[in-house]
Amino acid sequence: GFSNDGYKLWLQYYSIQAPQEWQVNFLSNYEVIGNSATLSIIKKEIAYASSGMISSHPEIKNSIPSLVIGKAGDLSAKNISNPGINSLASDGFAIFHNLESKQLIVSAKTDIGLLYGTFRLLQHIQTGTSIPKEGIFESPKVQHRVLNHWDNLDRTVERGYAGFSIWNWHRLPRHIDQQYHDYARANASIGINGTVLTNVNANALILTPEYLEKVKALADTFRPYGIKVYLTARFSAPIEIGGLQTADPLNAEVQAWWNQKAEEIYQYIPDFGGFVVKADSEGQPGPHNYKRTQADGANMMARALAPHEGIVMWRAFVYNEHTPDDRHKQAFNEFKPLDGKFLDNVIIQVKNGAIDFQPREPFHPLFGAMPNTPLMMEFQITQEYLGHDTHLAFLAPMFEEVLKDDTYANGKGSEVAKVIDGSLHQYAITAMAGVSNIGTDRNWTGHHFHQANWFAFGRLAWNPYQASQEIAEEWLKLTFSTDATFVKTMTDVMMNSREMVVNYMTPLGLHHIMAASHHYGPGPWVSGGRRADWTATYYHQANEKGIGFNRTYTGSNALSQYASELQNQWGSLATVPEKYLLWFHQVDWIQPLQNGESLWNNLAKQYQKGVEEARANIVTWENMREYVDDKRFNHVLSFLTIQAEEAAWWRDACLLYFGQFSKMPLPAGVESPK
Ligand code: GCW
User: Fold this and answer.
1) How far is the CA of 279 from the centre of ligand 1 (A)?
2) 253 carries an active-site annotation
3) Position 5 in a domain
4) Is 321 a residue of the active site?
5) Catalytic: 280?
6) pLDDT tens, residue by residue, 252-310
7) Are residues 513 and 453 in the same domain?
8) Cis peptide bond upstream of 371, omega within 30
């Protein structure tokens, strides 16, 4: 229809054109056993899905329900056996055919497991993917699957490009907006089970009773959807809101203050998830202010939360300008010596790469290096360095690339995903965080296609081994259409989109050459800023001879933080993958790459390729008009047009700038800047 503004995300429940019998059958003959807030949500969801997907088709009436949804215990009471249920996690689910009664069963140990199973079944129905003979038995591979909102109390969103914060603190706690339910429901539909409401650059006021009352209202709303609330804790809160003179983690008064604060929070929110902390980074207070370690700080908060079963997600994004060393190395140097020194309810939250959410980074060297301290992944869903809201970039291939990277920690086959799911080092806590791209825009995420990044994050947090291609296909079918041509065409566009952005922004391992502070658009010339590590010239190191950051042993030697297998592979010009070339090496402009052409020519051609890909996407999308409603079609078209123009801006700016050093002509086929 004309009016689709994308608010319904991947839960469109659009009418199925020629449904098969099973699709109609399950949606018209079902029974949900039991009563609870969560079961009411399940009942409403199926009725709603049914009214959308099959309303125009005659119901099929049976004497017994074709679909039964119930917890394992409730099913046994009905003599339905539950093969495979026992081995599920508490929030896992089973969808299987009961051969005796010819029914489809959705079962789980908990109501939340049933909710996840129901959503999965509805997704199968919408996409027309029948339930395999052997059924589906799934448990999440990661325990805590959380969104991080960098939302401020004044409703601005740090690095948010889709409007303002959806948390309306002024109206809370009395007004519970429908959007809070819609948010929780969308998250539950992809298995997300936690939300950190506030910015890691934290405001201590969130921990005062005035705000805790509001947080409680949100937590109460989210609970039936299986979503726990977490808050960011400002390290200096004991001074700012507690009236103490210090925030020293070894000071008894400070410790008592945090213990008391935790008590208080749990009175409002009995299942409060815990704290996320950014300390000693970019001006945030932390244990360094008192010459204490990150473990001293984290453990103080962990002790306060432990009696209530809360956890601390302590960020590893610690660096400062007084450490002259390559910023790449700082987190590793800070945390590696502390391995094993954290309490059991602490998990260290590590960004996927060592610098900062670049379009491409090698995995963070901490992964694999902390066998005795649980580490979790922090991905950035919001596109701080990938063109903000207007540039289409499907991020699942980027997430997947990192998750599949081999750390070699326990020899070959020690992929990052195995660190994250805890299997490599037998971590007792596992988690994955995604910095949210959600805001008050009608379609939640600015670009309609960036809904797919929220969706993909949920899927990969549930199963870090899932293929990004499969995620793209499923999202397209749920969000737009199951038409084979549409799905094939747009899957290809999505799957190539992040590489396209790398091509026109930071090819061959370049990084952090975005414009200063807002990070939108090119700025390789930015130098002499407040801090060396906040200037682009620091990262590309271009001069008349060549370009790139030497991180081998003749340079910063950040490479030494990786396993020897990787040091060997990445340390040599002959074997380093070209995608990481300038990340680890300073390379002469005239150096021939694998294709025999010079570095300069390769660089120029990559930029040109990115531009051509962005332009081609406009044509491809124009051919998709018949599959997409006008409103979403035109919105996407408008953004794709901006993207293509800005890809050329990136190419021109970077080639003009770097060309001053290389002094080499543009190779044939690369457009000269106008
Ligand atoms: O890259 C930086 C961002 C900051 C952000 C910081 C972080 C929340 O530019 O805006 O602060 O990362 O992750 O802490």
Assistant:
1) 12
2) no
3) no
4) no
5) no
6) 999 999 999 999 999 999 999 999 999 999 999 999 999 999 999 999 999 999 999 99
7) no
8) no
Q: Contact, 454 vs 439, CB < 8 A? A: no
Domain boundary among 138, 160, 183: 138
Q: Return the best residue to mutate from 327, 356, 379, 518 for the ligand 1 pocket (most ligand atoms within 8 A of CB).
A: 356
Structural domains counted in the chain: 3
Domain range holding 37? 21-138
Please give the distance, rounded to the nearest whole angstrom, from the Cα atom of residue 320 to the centre of ligand 1: 13
Which numbered atom of ligand 1 lies nearest the CA of 380?
A: 13
Percent of the chain with pLDDT over 70: 99
Count of Cβ atoms closer than 10 Å to residue 574 Cβ? 6
Q: Is 522 helix (H, G, I), strand (E, B) or coil?
A: strand
CA–CA separation, 104 and 135 (whole Å): 9
302 in the same domain as 446: yes
Q: Is the separation of the CB atoms in 576 and 570 below 8 Å?
A: yes
Question: Are 166 and 282 within one domain?
Answer: yes
Ligand 1: residues with CB < 6 A are 150, 158-159, 200-201, 278, 282, 317, 356, 384
- The enclosing H or E element of 377 equals strand 375-380
Residue 403 CA to ligand 1 centre (angstroms)? 22
How confident is residue 236, by pLDDT bands cut at 50, 70 and 90?
Answer: very high
The CATH number of whichever domain residue 513 belongs to comes to 3.90.1330.10
Buried b (16+ CB within 10 A) or exposed e, 75-85: beeeebebeeb
How close is the Cα of 443 to the center of ligand 1, in Å?
Answer: 24
Write out pLDDT tens, residues 432-476: 999 999 999 999 999 999 999 999 999 999 999 999 999 999 999
